[in-house]
Every structure is written in C-alpha cells, then in structure tokens.
Amino acid sequence: MERRSYALRLAYDGGRFRGFQRQPGLPTVQQALEEALERLGVRAQLHVAARTDAGVHALAQVVSFSARAALDPAALRRGLNEGLPEGILVLDAARVGPSFHARGSAASRTYVYLVGAPPPEGLRPYAWTLPDARAFPELAEVPPLDAAAMREALGAAVGEHDFVGFARPGEQRGTVRTLLRAEVVEAGWAPLVAVVLEGKGFLRAMVRNLVGTAVAVGLGRAPPDVIRTLLATRGRYRGVRAPGWGLTLAAVRYPDGAWPSPAAPPDPAASR
C-alpha cells in the first residue's frame, strides 16, 4: 500500500521538556508529538531536522514522517494542536515528496543564542544571564561584552573544520562540519547580544561550546584567537559550556523546491 510523506514545522518552549528525543520517564517533544499523532490514528517513525537538547527552544523545528493514511495538512495541524501539551505549537503541515527527509534533506540549520548582562525580564527564560557564578565565579560584576572580540573569535570557525574539540567527549568520528556564518548582533536597547550560527550540521554540544568560548572572549577571560588555536591543534575546549536555555533553533533551510520554504515564516496566530 502506498505510503504518503508529510512534514511539520514546530515551535516549542524547551524549558518544559527534556529535549526533543524520547527518554523513558521524562517529558520530551518527540513523545508528546507521537502521542498526539496516535490520537489521530497515525503511528509513524519521526525524523527530525535537529535533536535539540534539554532546555533548548525552537522557532522552526522540522519533523517528517510517512503514513498510509491520506491526511489533510490543515486538519492535521489543527488536530495536533488540539492534542499537544502547552509549550508546543504546530505552525505548519504539508504533504511532501517521498524523498523528503527532515534531517537528510536540510541544507542548513540556524541557531540563535541570547546572552544578557542581564537580559530583559521577559527574555530571561530564553537567554543566558550574566553574571553567572557557576560559569565565571571570579566575576562578581560583568563588564560589557566585547562584541567585536566575540566576532573575531567566532570568525575563525567559519568554513569547514574538524570540530572534535568542541564536541562532547567521546565523539571522535565524523567530526568535520561546515559553519556557513557566525554573527554577533548587539541590541541597542538592552545589554543583550545574539550569537547567530548557521551550518550544514552541528555536533552535540558544538554550538553551546562555541558560544561559551565566545562569551569568555567577550568578558576578557580568553584571547580572541582561542577558537582558531583549538581548531588548528584539535585541542579540546575545557572552558564554559553555555546553558541550554539560551539556545533556540531559529530556522532550517531546504533546497529550492523542497518544503518548507524559508522565505515566508508562518503566522503563529493563524495556526490554532
């Protein structure tokens, strides 16, 4: 019997879940989505564009699956949103071609990491708040982040490199990745910076270790050439790992003609 392929674009508050991937006895996005699909009569293996860790948020996560049922995308989106717990929203649903794969078809993923000293109150659940005694116990007060030094440090990571030193220990194979861009954007209205990293793919903990290194540079705790040196020597990063709650998967881009299109983000208000 013919199987049809579908894709979903999700937004979720990572603070409510222990990551995307299902874990026994813990609330995860995958478990919530699978249970909502089952209530609609759909049992399917899910493929996800990026397996976000505990606390990590998403504005445009993509999930694909195949099913024998002929599903109406609009009805599928509405039915899932009715059955999903608070903190997860299906922004869009679509029928896609049989070769579409949320992870394998993706051309790039873009992450945004917020750092505030401190951030505005409404952004605190989604940003790393400085000062942070756990990460920088010697800094009772935090000087303004040197965004220019952070840009210099992260600029060394753009391109194809072996990022083994920024991966979780033990991840020794397949550690070459391509970082397409690295930006540090300063807010003019608050002591807040956004680190934007776009790459073809990322290792586990790679983004958070790069951000942790850049923040150390921005605080004057590490030299601007630290990332360049670690990449050249394949040395292991032994500094601060940025906490998960400051990280958001902001976009997943696919080649032209594949779903979803990166050009026009959906209106969340129209998704319920």
TrEMBL record:
<keyword id="KW-0413">Isomerase</keyword>
<dbReference type="InterPro" id="IPR020103">
    <property type="entry name" value="PsdUridine_synth_cat_dom_sf"/>
</dbReference>
<feature type="domain" description="Pseudouridine synthase I TruA alpha/beta">
    <location>
        <begin position="158"/>
        <end position="255"/>
    </location>
</feature>
<dbReference type="GO" id="GO:0003723">
    <property type="term" value="F:RNA binding"/>
</dbReference>
<feature type="binding site">
    <location>
        <position position="111"/>
    </location>
    <ligand>
        <name>substrate</name>
    </ligand>
</feature>
<dbReference type="GO" id="GO:0160147">
    <property type="term" value="F:tRNA pseudouridine(38-40) synthase activity"/>
</dbReference>
<comment type="subunit">
    <text>Homodimer.</text>
</comment>
<dbReference type="GO" id="GO:0016829">
    <property type="term" value="F:lyase activity"/>
</dbReference>
<dbReference type="InterPro" id="IPR001406">
    <property type="entry name" value="PsdUridine_synth_TruA"/>
</dbReference>
<keyword id="KW-0456">Lyase</keyword>
<dbReference type="InterPro" id="IPR020095">
    <property type="entry name" value="PsdUridine_synth_TruA_C"/>
</dbReference>
<keyword id="KW-0819">tRNA processing</keyword>
<dbReference type="Pfam" id="PF01416">
    <property type="entry name" value="PseudoU_synth_1"/>
</dbReference>
<dbReference type="GO" id="GO:0031119">
    <property type="term" value="P:tRNA pseudouridine synthesis"/>
</dbReference>
<comment type="function">
    <text>Formation of pseudouridine at positions 38, 39 and 40 in the anticodon stem and loop of transfer RNAs.</text>
</comment>
<dbReference type="InterPro" id="IPR020097">
    <property type="entry name" value="PsdUridine_synth_TruA_a/b_dom"/>
</dbReference>
<comment type="similarity">
    <text>Belongs to the tRNA pseudouridine synthase TruA family.</text>
</comment>
<feature type="active site" description="Nucleophile">
    <location>
        <position position="53"/>
    </location>
</feature>
<protein>
    <recommendedName>
        <fullName>tRNA pseudouridine synthase A</fullName>
        <ecNumber>5.4.99.12</ecNumber>
    </recommendedName>
</protein>
<feature type="domain" description="Pseudouridine synthase I TruA alpha/beta">
    <location>
        <begin position="11"/>
        <end position="103"/>
    </location>
</feature>
<dbReference type="InterPro" id="IPR020094">
    <property type="entry name" value="TruA/RsuA/RluB/E/F_N"/>
</dbReference>
